[in-house]
Each structure stands twice: as C-alpha cells, then as structure tokens.
Amino acid sequence: MIEGKSKLTFGTGDIMMTPVLNKIDNEKTGMLVFENNSDGHQIGEYTGQNPEFRIAGKDVLMVFNKIESLDVVLERLSLLKSMWLDQEDDLLELDVIETAEDFKI
User: Fold this and answer.
1) What's the Cα-to-Cα distance from 62 to each of 6, 31, 86, 103, rounded to whole Å?
2) Is the pLDDT of residue 1 over 50?
3) Which of 1, 39, 79, 87 sits most deeply, having the most CB atoms within 10 A of its CB?
4) Residue 21 and residue 19: Cα distance in Å, rounded?
5) CB of 34 closer than 8 Å to CB of 59
6) Residue 93: per-residue pLDDT
7) How far apart are CA 84 and CA 87, in angstroms?
8) Residues 20 and 43 sit within 8 Å (Cβ to Cβ)
9) Terminal-to-terminal C-alpha distance of the chain
10) 65 CA to centre of own chain
11) Residues 37, 41, 45, 46: is their CA dihedral positive or negative?
C-alpha cells in the first residue's frame, strides 16, 4: 500500500465489484462497490445476487450523482484500454508512463 493512498489492483480476481442503484425520492445514485474477494473467483465471474449484501463496511465506493460522471469514467476506461492495446488512432495527446520511476504515486 502506498502511504495515504487507496489502491485497487486488478488482475487476480480478488476484488469483487457490485453495481448498486439507489433510488430515494425519485433521485437516483449509482454506486460501484469494491470489496476484497477472499473466495478466489475467476476474473469477471458473476456470483449472483446476495440477499445479505450491505454497503456498510465495504472497502471502497465509487458514487455517481450524475450519469454524465459515469459516462466520463467509462470513456476514460475505454481510452486506457486503447492505450494498452496500442490502438494509436484512438488516442488523444496523452503522456504514457514508460518507467517504474514515473509510476510512483
């Protein structure tokens, strides 16, 4: 862990992500709940709904009060995927971190 930072490292199936739509008084809030997955599921494996699921005490919440904010996150993730796959035509003028020294957070 990097001091003072929260870090989610994906790639081993040990992070469970649960989408939640909260509706109160005709207001919607979307959340993606992240929690440690000690059961060792495969990456992307859907485990079904858990009737005992509670948000309280979960490790990390991404909360979206406007759908436009969700659109931006999806667009940035799509851009990251393009960068990863070296799809140069899809890239904007962005810096790419080339060395471990540049990766320090």
Assistant:
1) 12, 5, 28, 23
2) no
3) 79
4) 7
5) yes
6) 54
7) 8
8) no
9) 11
10) 16
11) negative
Residue 28: both structure tokens together: 């919607």
Whether residue 50 contacts residue 27, with contact meaning beta carbons closer than 8 Å, is answered with no
Helix, coil or strand: residue 74: helix
For residue 12, pLDDT beyond 60 = yes
Residue type, 55: I
Strand order in the sheet with 60-64: 15-24, 27-36, 60-64
Q: Which amino acid is at 77?
A: L
Cβ-based neighbour number of residue 93 at 10 Å: 4
Q: Give the model's pLDDT for residue 96.
A: 58
Closest CA to 90 of 82, 81, 78, 98: 82
Q: Each residue of 42-95: pLDDT tens digit? A: 888 888 787 888 888 887 899 999 999 999 999 999 999 998 898 765 555 555
Distance CA 96, CA 83 (A): 8
